[in-house]
Design goal:
By secondary structure, the chain is α+β, with helices and mostly antiparallel strands. It has one domain: START domain (Alpha-D-Glucose-1,6-Bisphosphate, Chain A, domain 4, 2-Layer Sandwich), CATH 3.30.530. Helices cover 28% and strands 51% of the residues. A 7-stranded antiparallel sheet has the order 1-7-6-5-4-3-2. Strand 5 and strand 6 form a beta hairpin. The radius of gyration is 15 Å and the shape is globular. The N and C termini lie far apart (42 Å).
Length: 150
Amino acid sequence: MSRTTIQAERILPYRPDDLCRMVGDVRAYPQFIPWLQSLRVRSEEPREQGGWEGVAEAVVGWKAIRERFATKVRCEPAKGEVDVALVSGPFHALDNRWRFAAHERGAQVKFWISYQFKNPLLQAAVAANRDNVAARIMGAFEREAKRRFG
């Protein structure tokens, strides 16, 4: 069984550093990510210019499925980067990158995630819906950006 990789790119009419801080604001995710039931930051170290690095634990649910996992998060608004890597949970592998760059119409946003669940049935179900997953993730973040930045 191989990893599933999802990529998306958008041009949004906001500042790259604002969008980077918003994506790095993982504590707010349960308010706007549809299947995220809870999230808590277990450890946190500040970085330069409003960034941080630490470990976050999330509970996700979809229909009868409920899973808990932990990730290492690094947010660096000055570089336009948010990186997420697996610490523990129902995955063999999980890596996620967000990149933000200035664009004439605001910001270019690149989203990339690659994962493999330990449970082959769960992997197959999510892989079969990967386009829907990408659209839902980007849509949730776009709506939150519009709410925050108008």
